[in-house]
Amino acid sequence: MNRHRTRRRARAALLAASAASALLLTACSAAENHTNDSNHTIATGAPAPSRAAGDETAAPSDHLSTFALDVDTASYGYARRTLADGGRPDPSTVRPEEFVNSFRQDYRTPGHNGFTVTVDGARTSRPNWSLVRVGLATRPAADDAGERPPAALTFVIDVSGSMGEPGRLDLAKKSLDTMTDRLRDDDSVALVTFSEHAETDLPMTRLGGHRAEIHDAVDRLAPLSSTNLGEGVETGYATAVEGLRKNATNRVVLISDALANDGETDPNAILRRIDGDRREYGITLFGVGVGSDYGDALMERLADKGDGHTVYVSDTATASDVFCRQLPQNIDLVARDAKAQVAFDPHTVAEFHLIGYQDRKVADQDFRNDTVDGGEVGPGHTVTALYAVRTNPGTDGHLATATVRWLDPDTRTPHENTGAIETDALHEDIWSASPRFQVAAVAAYFADALADGEYDIPGAPSPTKLRSWATALARTTEDKQVTDLATAIREAGLSGAAD
To answer: pLDDT per residue over 179-224, tens digit each?
Structure first.
């Protein structure tokens, strides 16, 4: 804990010094904004125009925070599985943004590709400190699957010896069988397996008229020996390129416990081998983690480098949701290389830090550099970023402006949208904020507790209060996911005092 406190003091001193020397920010070009009944400031209307390089009105970087969008949820799913089994997740596997992004939010959604931007906040029990929530939302997924483009999905399936344990390959096979029956006739599927070596079990095959053939290929899957994940990913991309379909969503879906022990195991080296295919053909990587022993760090880095995201499945219910709802529904993309930048006003803000997103941070000057990778986001997604913000005592006015930038998935045309918040829009305390804001706060505080306070979130409640808070929110929201959160907090058996 001492090293955490030392790091926090150093970070606070650096940010405070930056605040004293920074110039007053000029707000980013904004779309038309309005405030709803919950004191959310939501950007609507046309995307804001981008500034030209070298524009002197740009805010100084001392008060900017820039990150690539991320919709991963695997960290929270794996933590829940570990706690349910009577264990405690390793703090290094706890990423608070993935806890927060595991829950439904209350953001307004656009009627077109792109994002709405919601910014709200609430003061915490720590003097002058607030939590500020930046929420981004895409249009809902089409109710009619026929409205989305066809899919060309290459499943890269780990059949190593460790996948023979219950809840791994058996769960994947059951999910693939169910998904095969639910995909459209004009969708295509390929199967690649890897153990000591990788091979293509089924080339890209249309579902229409071939479902029995696909079921047979799935049924033949059986665990073998070691885990050459690098060769599996490389063969999977080669198979995806060979079966590439124009005007379709081409995606590699990696199903593994990510316990690589053979061949290339470094994710950067693995992705370098297929980087040309990834960039030229726009093939994204969707990682599905399984198993009580799970290589979380490897899977997470692969997905980040592969322009995709990760989920974790531990039982039939979550597997069915991932394969039969999330994957088919979100095959379409609404945004490529999406990034967010938040500009804090040094008149009102003394210091701030983004909670999580360590592996997704982007240099401030690269926000509008569209050659720098961002995140790929599909319909029906929300992305939430929480900031810990210390305000200057006695100041009022503009607090922050959040801008999201993305590329049209087809034309690569850049677009932007913005939202802003004033100090008088901050709720007096977290308890008076919307229930969904409170859910995000509880999830973040829970992650911070599991990570031994690594993320320094102000106003952390005592473990007893955190448990009762989550239980009350479960009743208020009538949301099973929030009930599951309350259960996980109880199973964690947290101890310690509040800040």
So the answer is: 999 899 999 999 999 999 999 999 999 999 999 999 999 999 999 8
Helices (H), 451-479: 463-477
Compute the distance between CA of residue 441 and CA of residue 435 in angstroms, rounded to an integer. 10
Burial letters for 319-330: b for 16+ Cβ neighbours within 10 Å, e otherwise? bbebbbebbbbb
> Tell me: the pLDDT tens digits for 455-489?
999 999 999 999 999 999 999 999 999 999 999 99
Element (H, E) at 436: helix 435-450
How far apart, in whole angstroms, are the C-alpha atoms of residue 388 and residue 352? 5
Pairwise CA distance, residues 439 & 480, whole Å: 12
What the block records as the tokens of 147 is 């409205």
Q: What letter represents residue 438's amino acid?
A: Q
Dist. CA 205–CA 209, nearest whole Å: 10
Give which of 217, 304, 214, 183 is closest to 254, Cα–Cα.
Answer: 304
Round to whole Å and give the CA distance between 455 and 73. Answer: 18
| CB-based burial label for 66 (10 Å; 0-12, 13-18, 19+) | buried
Residue of 310, 315, 316, 362 whose CA lies nearest to 339: 362
The CA distances from residue 409 to 247, 272, 335, in Å, are 11, 23, 5
The rounded distance, in Å, linking the Cα atoms of 31 and 118 is 12
Lowest-confidence pick of 20-34, 278-292, 304-318, 482-496: 20-34
